[in-house]
Specification:
mainly alpha; single chain; about 65% helix; Hypothetical protein af1432; 10 helices
Amino acid sequence: MTQTVIEQAVAFVQDELGKDSSGHDWWHIHRVWQMAKRIGTAEGADLFIVELAALLHDVADEKLNECEAAGLAKVRTWLTAHDVAEAAVEHVMEIISTMSFKGGGRSGMRTLEGRVVQDADRLDAIGAVGIARTFAYSGAKGQLPHDPTLPPRTDMTAEEYRKGKSTAVNHFYEKLLLLQDLMNTDAAKSIAAERHRYMEEFLDRFHAEWDGKM
């Protein structure tokens, strides 16, 4: 039963997000799903909850729906229609509704499964893949790669984080370089350290080339 639900979730997400070009496509979900299983196994989490939440988390994302409530309702409807137990539905919905960065203002995840999925999602935002996703998302939003006259924003509300003016490079300072210290699990912290170092090296190189020093 649980494996069937996971397979159905995969098909649902592929249909919902298969054509996204903002960095929240099926392959982002696939990477988060695989990483969540890796971390969840290492940490002893309930893998059914971990897999469902990892697979469905961006179906509810407010960036991809008319509003956050509409996205969450879509996920809840799908879970209920596929006879997922009520306790599991509530656990998955809690994870999905509280895991987003949103300018850094959210509190920590309540459950181990939530911490695992949040870590997996955040790991996909950093390192080489995170760099690629950042520029893809900025392009989709009509933002410049870099504008040295536009400083990174600090102390943002969730609304400012989503809708304020920024650039791809500023996004590293506004979010991505902060994620290493926000990892929940030991397994994720180890992976994040190397990915963080890679981003720092990229930014050093980027700014040197921008300034004509390399």
